[in-house]
Design a protein that fits this description.
alpha/beta, 5 helices
């Protein structure tokens, strides 16, 4: 990961006010480098963790990106900046109330991205695949094949797996994975 990726991520995160994506009782903590509760047993992830994940993801202008576990919409909004111009970001969220909250937050921030409710029995948004990049903000027990199958050739997914932050690259039909440190996330659940 080059300095240019880190710089682009820093600029995108500065441009998207975290406060807009938090409940009013959490506004005063918006600048804190910690996860913050957004209701429904979900959190708005710690900014340093988001920066690390987005740097590893390396979303670029023109990419199609899937944001799994979009929550308040904050990472969805940052991703939208990273893939502009010409890119597309689709969020997917399991908790119906957070789908509505995330959509409202994106609209309030003027971000051209959407959040869809998770479909029962599905992980991700297979009907909209393939994606160049997939960001997963919930911890899986193992690398989900259903999400790997939604990557384009040359695509990348960043996902916490059993405590490790994993980067999975699909190249020529071959999947390679690398782990980058230990992180804690809420568990990844499907919508069954």
């Amino acid at each position: 990961m080059g300095d240019d990726v880190e710089q682009r991520v820093r600029e995108a995160m500065r441009a998207v006010d975290r406060r807009t994506f938090l409940p009013p009782d959490q506004h005063r903590f918006a600048g804190a480098d910690q996860p913050l509760p957004i209701g429904h047993h979900a959190t708005c992830s710690q900014p340093s963790t988001v920066a690390r994940m987005l740097t590893l993801l390396d979303a670029r202008p023109g990419h199609r990106v899937l944001d799994v576990g979009s929550g308040s919409g904050w990472t969805t909004a940052i991703l939208a900046r990273l893939v502009a111009p010409g890119g597309e970001v689709r969020g997917v969220e399991l908790e119906p109330a957070l789908v509505e909250t995330g959509r409202a937050n994106l609209a309030a921030a003027g971000v051209p991205a959407g959040i869809a409710p998770a479909v029962p029995g599905e992980l991700g948004l297979p009907r909209h695949a393939p994606f160049d990049r997939i960001l997963v903000s919930a911890e899986a027990r193992r690398l989900p094949r259903a999400l790997v199958d939604q990557l384009t050739d040359g695509g990348r997914m960043v996902i916490p797996v059993r405590g490790d932050l994993v980067v999975a690259d699909l190249t020529g039909g071959e999947l390679t994975t690398r782990a980058f440190g230990t992180y804690r996330f809420v568990p990844l659940r499907d919508s069954t």
